[in-house]
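Repro:
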Amino acid sequence: MSKPTDATMIHADVVATRYVTPGMIRVTIGGEALAAFTGRGFDQWFRLFLPLEGETNFALPKKIDLLGYVQYLAMPKATRPPLRNYTVREFRPEQRELDIDFVAHGDAGIASGWAARAKVGDRVALLDQGVMFEPKPGVDWHLLATDESGLPAAAGILRDMPRDAVGHAFIEIGSADDAQETGAPEGMQVHWLVRDGHEKPGVLALETVKAFDLPVGSVYAWVVGEQSLPTSLRRWLVNERGVPKDHILFCGYWRFGHAT
């Protein structure tokens, strides 16, 4: 994972919100402070500090290292902005605008609840954390697997991959209407997997990948989403497919049954 060496806390304001699909809300933030933000592409992620419904203290540490995190936790909880991790969906440096996509869960989570209510002028803060997608040189093909929580990151990867990249991307979603254009290379086959409404997120993606006739050759795998998907699929790739552990990026974005 590549981490920025020049990251500093950036404050920005909401300039627009809209549903890009029935299950995904896009919040666009903007402001001159984004001149200090460096777009790195792929699955670039950041720490996002959200406003409370009441008074919010955005006098945050400039960095969230060990000391900065202790300082953040020491802030009074009543005014301390909630912290979540999110992905850059699109960054337009000339316009000083950055798009963030949120899975629409209504009020079931702090972040999704805020995104559903967000209005122009709302203040947020963010801190760049870098890019996790880093394929090994010379791999024969790529494997991406996620549920909808990783859709923005997967779309960013597919958009920015070399145009001669080949492989498969399995993206599980709750409704066929939640599929999006990704700009994937011609050789990257994108499989939209529509989950049954009663099925636990990630199960369909896991079972589909395991049953699929995957290519032979060396692979770099990127697997994120509800925590059981990346942990289970990584175990299967290592034990059943012989994929080296350092050829797999896996990350649990969330945990089923716990509000985000």
